[in-house]
Specification:
By secondary structure, this protein is of the alpha+beta class. The protein has a 7-stranded antiparallel beta sheet with strand order 2-3-4-8-7-6-5, sandwiched between helices. The protein has a two-stranded antiparallel sheet with strand order 1-9. Helix 1 crosses helix 2.
Amino acid sequence: MPEFAAATVRLRTPEHAVALPVRTPVDLAAWAAAAARGLVGPDDGEPKLLDALAHELREAAADSRERGPVTALSYVPEPRLGELARIELSALVADESHPRLTVDLLRRYLAAPTPDSYRPPEAELRTLPAGPAVRVRHAYVQDVGRDGLGTVLETCAYGIRADETWGLVLLASWRSLAYTDALCELTDDLARTVRVTS
C-alpha cells in the first residue's frame, strides 16, 4: 500500500447521496442551494422545501468540514425528510504514541465506550478490498434535556488498516432508528467500495 501522503482514496457515492464540499473552498450557501435543487429535481419547486434542504445541507457541510474528513456525504433518499444519514471517510496516521497502526488499535479506538454510550459497542473483524478491518456499531445519547431524555445517535463504522502507518475510518451516523438495519447494510456496501491507490 502507498503511504497516506502519496495515496488516492476512493469511495463510491451511493444513489441519493450528495458529496459535501469538505476540502474545496466554495460558497456554502450557493453550493447548498444548487445541491438541494439537484436532489429535489426540476419539477418540485416548493420554495420552503428547497430552502429547508439547502439550510440542512449547508449545516451538514460546515459540520463535516470541522472534522476534516477525506470525503463526506449527505444521504438524502427522500428530500422532504432531509438528511437521513451522514457518511464520512477519514484518515488516521500513526504517530509517536502509536507508531504502528493495527486492526486491534482501530478496534480499541472505535469501540471504546463513552459516558454518552447508549449501549455497549459491538465490534467484529472483517476483510475488505482496502485491507483488514473492524466493523463497530455504537449508539450514543445526545442533547439530553432537563428531563433526562435525549436523542439517540446510531453509528456504524469501519476501521480499515491500509498499512502499518495509516488507516481509514468510514463512519455513518443517523438519528432515524427505524432505518438502522438499512443504513448498516448501506455502510457495509460502501465499505467494500473503498479503494486505495498510489
